[in-house]
Amino acid sequence: MIPLSAQSFAGKTVTLPKPTAAGLGNQATLAQSAGARNRRILLVAPQPFYQDRGTPIAVRQVLEGLSQLGFSVDLLTYPVGTDVNLPGLRIIRTANPFRFTSVPVGFSLQKMLLDIPLTFQLRDRLRKGAYTCIHAVEEAAFPAVLLGRHDKVPVVYDMQSSLPEQLATVRGFRTTPTRYVLNKLESWLLGHADFVVCSAGLADRVRTVASQARVREWCYPSVMVATSDPDNSQLRRELAIPSEAPVVLYGGTFENYQGLSELIEAVPLVRAQVPGAVFLLVGAENGRGASVRAQALPLVEAGAVRILDRQPRHLIPSYLQLADVLVSPRSHGGNLPLKVYDYLAAGRPIVATDIPTHRTVLDSERALLVPPHSMALAGGIVSLLRDPVRAARLADAARRYAEKHLGWSDFVESLSGLYEDVHRHATAPA
After folding, report:
1. Which of 50, 191, 225, 361 minimizes the number of CB atoms within 10 Å of its CB?
2. What pLDDT band is residue 36 in, cutting at 50, 70 and 90?
3. Element (H, E) at 319
4. DSSP notation for 376-396
5. What per-residue confidence (pLDDT) applies to 13?
């Protein structure tokens, strides 16, 4: 995903105001009246924190919201990443016996090995500290539920994605017996966590797998990038993109499920009708973009495609402003990619594949939804490049939706509501 969060970007006009107590309204009152400052949360995040990428960005937003609401949080995380300073936050990093310096996106050997000391340190933290709740992200929820039940500490499972679905693309996890075991494990976890909070698009799966689960689905906040007359001439020169060339931008990971293969197949189809169009693919990391680079090599050599590694956060607004069309060609997956929230706020027209995940926040009023194959992607992109009136209408509707529904105060309110439920559950008579 394009790494955006609720922060300012150096040198760019980016506004995502964090409200005052008056602006927060009921949620600030609830947090204070329930004694938020006397509640201590153990948040377990099996990721490199902090890094500008998917789940770590989401975790940071949760931490910022909890800090604003006055909670004290111990963050147990990997020994890789950059520290973040927030009121009430203490970062506890696990041991690094394997001396890893990076952890790739998705399933990896590094992740498997680092989850071992993470689990032991989770056990030690529960023995030493009096926590009112464990907020466990992704696979950390499995040991958290087992240990939390032993210590009578409620557990919030932060479901960023469906683990069986995520592992379906990994060699060795595709066999029927393995899929069966993974689905059973997910069913057990959803049924035994005290609360489940999930990314947009996953609530229906949770209710199907575990109808009794207490589940909340939330949307992460967007960053409002300035849209008025941006001057991108310098960035165009750096990328060798002619000043008059329309730009189609994809920002995100280069994993197989993102649909980049279909997008690359669409490039010649688009350029047959819009010869000068340039496709900009941003987000390759740790060699994960090798297959994409190989497939796109002839198009790169022809000047039709630019492939960039993951970019520093302060540069991202310029890339969003550079785009004439933003595209999300994802082929499958239950969780909505965080980049879609930022696409909505960017004030640029969106072409996205018409899959249930995208439809959690996109519809025909604020995006052009097309079937998930190359010809349909090409047709959608061409139609918006040729029809600037329609493109502007979609972009404006997307921006207005983000301003109304994806603000920081809405996210903090949903976070406050979740923890009020946790507090009531923890203090209810047995």
Report:
1. 191
2. low
3. helix 316-322
4. HHHHHHHHHHH-HHHHHHHHH
5. 34
Distance CA 319, CA 280 (A): 9
Torsion of CA 370, 374, 376, 377, to 10 degrees: 60
Q: Which residue, chain included where needed, has tokens 């139609």?
A: 383
pLDDT tens per residue, range 114-153: 999 999 999 999 998 789 999 999 999 999 999 999 889 9
How far is C-alpha 72 from the chain's CA centre? 24
- CA triple 414-421-56, angle to 5 deg: 50
Length of the chain: 430
Distance CA 147, CA 125 (A): 11
pLDDT at 298: 96
Q: Which ranges of 129-273 would DSSP assign to H, the alpha helix?
A: 141-151, 163-167, 176-192, 203-209, 233-238, 260-273
Q: Does residue 37 register a pLDDT over 90?
A: no
Q: Give, in order, the Cα–Cα distances in Å from 138 to each of 164, 180, 210, 258, 392.
A: 11, 19, 17, 20, 38
Pairing mode of beta strands 14-15, 224-225: antiparallel
How many Å separate Cα 155 from the centre of its chain? 21
Q: Where are the beta strands (DSSP E) in 241-372?
A: 247-251, 278-284, 305-309, 325-328, 350-353, 368-370
- Judge whether 285 and 291 are in contact, CB under 8 Å: no
Asked if 82 and 262 count as a contact pair (C-beta separation under 8 A), the reply is no
Spatial neighbors of 388 by CB under 8 A, at least 6 apart, are none
* Non-local CB neighbours of 289 within 8 Å, separated by 6+ positions: 254, 283, 307, 309
DSSP bridge partners of 195: 156
| For range 218-237, the mean pLDDT | 75
User: What letter would DSSP give residue 314?
Assistant: G
Distance, in Å, from the CA atom of 383 to the CA atom of 391, rounded to the nearest integer, reads 9
| H helix or E strand, kind and range, residue 342 | helix 339-345
pTM: 0.82
Two tokens, residue 177: 């017996």
Beta-carbon-side half-sphere exposure of residue 169 (alpha carbons within 13 Å): 16
Task: Give the max Cα distance, the chain.
Answer: 69
Residue pointed to by tokens 């995380």: 77
Residues in contact with 137: Cβ distance below 8 Å, sequence separation at least 6, in sequence order? 43, 44, 45, 46, 47, 55, 59, 158, 160
Q: Which of 102, 45, 51 is nearest to 76 (CA)?
A: 45
